Amino acid sequence: MDDLQRLIWQGENDQVDFKQRVTQPDKIARTLVSFANTRGGMILIGVKDDGKVVGVDPEEEKHTLELAAGFYCDPPLLLSYEEVELDGRTILKVTVPESSTKPHFAKVKEDDWRGYVRVKDTSVQTSKMVEKSMETDEPTFERIPLDRHELAVLDYLALNRRVTLRQYMKIANLSERRAYRMLVKLVIHGYVRLHDKEKEEYYTLS
Predict the structure, then answer these.
(1) Whose CA is closest to 192, among 82, 79, 99, 167?
(2) Domain residues of the chain, as ranges?
(3) What is the pLDDT tens value at each position of the chain, 206 positions in all?
C-alpha cells in the first residue's frame, strides 16, 4: 500500500482532511487557517468524506485555493501542491505548513474575520475551543516569546481572576481587532483559556 492510499485508509484526523471539490474560497479558508494555527496538515482534494477517490481537475482547484489563501486568510498563507494519480484519477494533495506567524484568521463575511484551530477531524472556531479541548486529551502547546502587550494581559491575570476583550483593549490601549488577535494567539499557544459559556466571553490563565 503506498503512502497516499494509507493516508486515505486511515481517514480524516487532526492533520488530514478530504474534500471532493473546493468551490467556495471562504469555506476552505477555515480549514487552511485551522491547520496553519495548529500543527499544519494536508488536504486531499478529489476524495470524498468516506475515502472514495473521485478525482479532480487540479488547475481549477488551485485557482480557488489560491484565492482562499491570498484573500480569505489573514495573514495570507503559502500552500504547496502535488498532483498524484490513484486508480486512474488525479488527486490534488495540498500541504498547509504550521505557521510561524500565528494566529491566522479566515474571512467569514465582510469585515468579519475569525480564528480557527484543528481539533480531531474538524476546524473549530476559536471561541468554541473550550468545549472541544475538554473533549480531547490535554493539547500540547508550543510556548513562544511574548511582547509587552501580551505580557500585560498575563500580568493582569496574575492579579485578577479573569479579563474580557473590552478590559484588555483598555489595559493595553489596543484596537478591538488587535486585542482579539493577541488573545487568540495566547489561547492557541496555551497561555490563557477562553470561557464562552456566559453572555460575555472572558479569559483566564491556563
Answers:
(1) 167
(2) 3-125, 148-205
(3) 588 999 999 999 999 999 999 999 999 999 999 999 999 999 999 999 999 999 999 999 999 999 999 999 999 999 999 999 998 999 999 999 999 988 999 999 998 999 999 988 999 888 766 555 545 555 566 778 899 999 999 999 999 999 999 999 999 999 999 999 899 989 888 899 888 878 888 999 98
**One-character DSSP codes across 118-172:** EETTEEEEGGGHHHHHHHSSPPP-------HHHHHHHHHHHHSS-B-HHHHHHHH
Residue 10: how many other CB atoms lie within 10 Å: 10
Element housing 17 (H / E): strand 16-19
DSSP letter (8 states) at residue 191: S
Distance CA 105, CA 112 (A): 9
Burial 139-164 (b: 16+ CB within 10 A, else e): eeeeeeebeeebebbeebbeeeeebe
CATH top-level class of 3-125:
alpha beta
pTM for the whole structure:
0.81
Cell 487552511 identifies what position? 32
Domain spanning 148-205 has what CATH number?
1.10.10.10
